[in-house]
Amino acid sequence: MPPVARILVPILWLVTSMAAAADPWLALPGGEGPGQGKKIVLVSGDEEYRSEEALTQLSKILARHHGFDCTVLYAIDPATGAIDPNTVDNIPGLEALRTADLMVIATRFRNLPDEQMREIDAYLRAGRPVVGMRTATHAFNIPAGRAFHHYSWNHQGEAMPQGFGRQVLGETWISHHGHHGKESTRGLVAPGAGDHPILRGINDGDIWGPTDVYAVRLPLPGDARPLVLGQVLSDMQPGSPPVVGPKNEPLMPVAWTNTYSVAGGPAGRVFATTMGAATDLVAAGTRRLLVNGCYWAVGLEARIPAAANVDLVGEFVPTAFSFNGARKGVKPADLR
Fold first, then answer.
1. Residue 324 φ/ψ region, left for φ over 0, alpha for ψ in the -120 to 50 degree band, beta for the rest
2. Are the CB atoms for 51 and 45 separated by under 8 Å?
3. Which residues does 47 contact at the CB level (< 8 Å), separation at least 6?
């Protein structure tokens, strides 16, 4: 290497690192893998289920093991620059959606300003793929009279009744079906879905999470196809027996595919799951479901490995789900 280059390379690396440290998001370049060249933007922001932890870990798995370039966005307190899920009106960096191949979203009741919602709206109007996790069924709560109120979970207008959840993912917030905090979820392959590429390498019981099953209306709308059914367990351990009675008769879908279109635009692929809290990612089967879902959403289903590498990257000790339970003072640069 020429002498000048030996000087310039470390300077460039230092300048780039300093700039990344100042960004209110986490950018992870992909390594080798089928996803190389594909860009995923992961949008966190919920007060209860630690999406800021779940999407950070998921992004590391997707980048390191599968080659995707990942950018994780967070709810940021503008006064401190720290991640604060209780800040419901600020997720900086949504401009990254302009060049994204996939949006993974796990927000809850966000009331984002118009300039931020405009980025999400443009992405959806283009019919680009979406992966929705847990509280994304009720991702937005924008007051009536605002430009993007139609994305709100309880919107009643004819164009998008029940907003983003129902019209994009396939369901809005209905209720807890399992006993929240008392009954966990075991994933069972839905009848006839075993050959779907998202379920490659996944068997009954591989998917588990301490979060409870959400209620959905049956059948799911349009061409939504259930992939995984949620068996309500009697306790908070993966080996617990199922509860007896109507909670498991019938079983509620906890993962499905869907197709959406906004304002008559092109159709887009959707993979949705009502699982996905940070604690759910302790189970390798849950991580595999999410990784496979991302492959499928971007059209790489033929390249989903028979047993995708879903090993955790770095230390991962997720915070138990609760309101006001987020770790304090954490900035995106701390998660690099």
1. left
2. yes
3. 85, 86, 88, 108, 109, 323, 324, 326
For residue range 225-256, list pLDDT tens digits in order.
999 999 999 999 999 999 999 999 999 999 99
CA-based torsion, 219, 220, 224, 225: positive or negative = negative
Q: In the structure encoding, which two tokens stand for residue 185, read together?
A: 């979820």
Distance (Å, whole) CA 104 – CA 35: 15
How many whole angstroms separate alpha carbon 207 and alpha carbon 205?
A: 5
**264 exposure class (CB count in 10 Å sphere: 0-12, 13-18, 19+):** exposed
**What are the pLDDT digits (tens) for 296-330?**
999 999 999 999 999 999 999 999 999 999 999 99
Domain ranges of the chain: 3-180+261-335
pLDDT of 91 strictly over 60: yes
Question: Residue 193: left if φ>0, alpha if ψ -120 to 50, beta else—which one?
Answer: alpha
Tell me the DSSP string of 10-32.
Answer: HHHHHHHHHHHHHSSEEEE---S
- Which element (helix H / strand E) includes 284? helix 284-297
Sign of the CA dihedral with 106 first, then 110, 115, and 117 last: positive
Number of alpha carbons in the 13 Å side-chain half-sphere of residue 166? 22
On whether the pTM is more than 0.85, the answer is yes
CB 209 within 8 A of CB 289: no
Cα of 219 vs its chain's centroid, Å: 23
Q: Bridge partners of 229?
A: 188, 253
Phi, psi of 104 (to 5 degrees): -105, 125
Pair of tokens at residue 101: 């191949």
250 cis-preceded (ω within 30 degrees of 0): yes
Look up residue 261 and give its amino acid: S
- Structure tokens given for 68: 């995707």
Neighbours of 246 (CB within 10 A): 9
Q: What angle do CA 88, 92, 94 make, to 5 degrees?
A: 105
3-state secondary structure of 102: strand
